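Listing S7. Sequence submitted for prediction.
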Amino acid sequence: MSAIRTENLVKKFRGVEALNGLTLDVPDGAVYALVGPNGAGKTTAIKILMNIFGPTRGWAEVLGIESARIAGHDFTSIGYVSENQELPEWMRVGALMDYLRPFYPSWDRALEKELVEQFDLPLERKLGNLSRGMRMKAALASSLAYHPKLIVLDEPFTGLDPLVRDELIQGLLERAEESTIFVSSHDLAEIESFASHVGYLEQGRLRFSEELAHLVEHFREVQVTFDRAARLPEKAPENWMQLNTSAAVVRFIESQFDPERTRAEIQRVFGEVRDVTLSPMTLREIFLAMAKGGRNAA
């Protein structure tokens, strides 16, 4: 079963295409990270899923409901927190919880208390007097207290100090067994520490979407060393990215790594070489490679 599905989703704003044929499948129970450069369309996609925007074309489904029909009671199963979430600044933290509680039949007073203590939320302070990090904690606590089936987070870690990020992530991970989590973020080091799946969005197009463990297996930083001055090949395989040379070394990124095939391609393209080094890459390094590749292609 899928918690989120989209098919050929397109969104245009005055001729600018923010999403271009987005087809996405987020498995039930996944911790799915949607990453990509600024302007890639991540927030637009989330706002369509939450029925804040309507799509220009295509179709989206959230928890088995067409996104364009999500309203009212449907949000009792969805926790949504965005980077620019507006909270009533005049209201105290405790009053916010009191106000929201009746709207959610599954609101758990014991869990609310646990989250307030875990996030060290000052119940008597006004939201407008809290730091951004504390406001994000309040927003997240109020979105977790009713055991949502789906938690949607749009850039939740932007501008937060490491301690606050760790506290938010810990709070999320403790809910992961009962919820699907869908998060967009630029904070790749943090994403890599807890995501199970990752999708890369660029210029409104989904470049890849798969389990994180599989993704990192597909990418390698390759260094080929020669006994002579190195030259770049006239035609390299399409899965080789960012080829460059220095003295007797050629370096590139292999985006479809397979031990036997990759070594065979190196042999075919370069002939005899002195040494080949294949180094694993972090999610951040993969992200940067994809972003640079997209920029060069543009």
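Caption to Listing S7: primary sequence and predicted structure tokens for the chain studied. The radius of gyration is 23 Å. The chain has nine helices and 14 strands.
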